């Protein structure tokens, strides 16, 4: 099918920079919608949840590469705790493309262990 969702998905897959414009879901612009105690929900094309623990942060379904800079900024506006674990619930591109760059750079500067990843083998 060649509908609007297909066009948006293809543009995202091809890293089309026009997808970044605007504030629609298609633009992958994340924002915090809710906070439930230690859980921070970041809404974007693929939602990302961050859980604050005594050891630091656990990130569940880390989002897209388009949203990565804003996810990082949003988390850092709320907490400076290090991320220690990333959980990928499944392998769809909209859930696994965030590469933790900002968090990894912080860990390296501190001399910390890098982010542990929990995911399916395939």
How does this structure look, described?
The chain has 122 residues and is α/β, with parallel strands linked by helices. It is built from four helices and six strands; from the N terminus they run H-E-E-E-E-H-E-H-H-E. The protein has a single domain, classed as Ribonuclease Z/Hydroxyacylglutathione hydrolase-like (Metallo-beta-lactamase, Chain A). The longest helix is centred in the middle third of the chain and has 11 residues. The mean pLDDT is 76.
What's the structural blueprint in terms of helices and strands?
Layout: H1 4-13, E1 31-36, E2 39-43, E3 48-53, E4 56-60, H2 68-78, E5 83-87, H3 93-96, H4 101-110, E6 116-118
Parallel strand pairs: 4-5, 5-6
Antiparallel strand pairs: 1-2, 2-3, 3-4
Class by alpha and beta content: alpha/beta
The tally of strands reads: 6
Main-sheet strand order equals 1-2-3-4-5-6
* CATH topology heading: Metallo-beta-lactamase, Chain A
- Count of structural domains: 1
CATH class: Alpha Beta
The separation of the N and C termini measures: 27 Å
- Considering the protein shown, what is the CATH homologous superfamily? Ribonuclease Z/Hydroxyacylglutathione hydrolase-like
Helix percent band: 25-40%
Q: Which runs of at least 5 residues are low in confidence (pLDDT < 50)? A: none
Query: How much of the residues is beta strand, in percent?
Result: 15-25%
H/E element string? HEEEEHEHHE
CATH architecture: 4-Layer Sandwich
Kindly provide the radius of gyration, computed on alpha-carbon positions and rounded to a whole number of angstroms: 15 Å
Shape: globular
- The total of helices stands at 4
């Amino acid at each position: 099918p060649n509908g609007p969702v297909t066009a948006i998905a293809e543009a995202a897959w091809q890293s089309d920079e026009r997808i970044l414009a605007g504030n629609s879901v298609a633009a992958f612009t994340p924002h915090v919608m809710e906070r439930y105690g230690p859980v921070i929900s970041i809404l974007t094309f693929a939602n990302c949840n961050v859980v604050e623990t005594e050891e630091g942060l656990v990130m569940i379904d880390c989002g897209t590469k388009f949203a990565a800079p804003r996810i990082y900024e949003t988390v850092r506006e709320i907490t400076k705790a290090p991320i220690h674990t990333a959980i990928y619930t499944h392998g769809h591109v909209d859930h696994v493309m965030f590469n933790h760059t900002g968090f990894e750079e912080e860990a390296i500067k501190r001399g910390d262990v890098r982010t542990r990843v929990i995911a399916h083998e395939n």
